[in-house]
Predict the 3D structure of the following.
Amino acid sequence: MAEQKTKPTEHTVTSFLDHVTDENVRRDCFDLVQLMERATGFPPVMWGASIVGFGQYHYKYESGHEGDACLVGFSPRKQNISLYIMGFDNRPALLDKLGKYKAGKGCLYIKKLSDVDGQVLEQLVKESAAYLQKKYPGK
């Protein structure tokens, strides 16, 4: 099996975020660290070169593919901030209240933190982490 590319590293989150060139995005990212740490109870850890993750779970698919991933996380990208928040039962109701975002299967994309309701985002993070911990118990 190929080695997993995105895994926890020894790099510091602060050092990574200090290199975000857009001051507003950098400030939003530091605020996201506080929000996600508060919501999950896990400290921030760098996953690969560009993902700030919180917590960890081990997945195994029916195909036999398995690996580790952060429960929730985010990454400042060129076009937006990608939030890695997986599905759960209450997601559509919460997304209706979130504010301005775009969504993919396991990601939310926001331009700036002020575009979304912080309390709703924190609830999304909590429910996502709880969903994954229940679905993949063990870590």
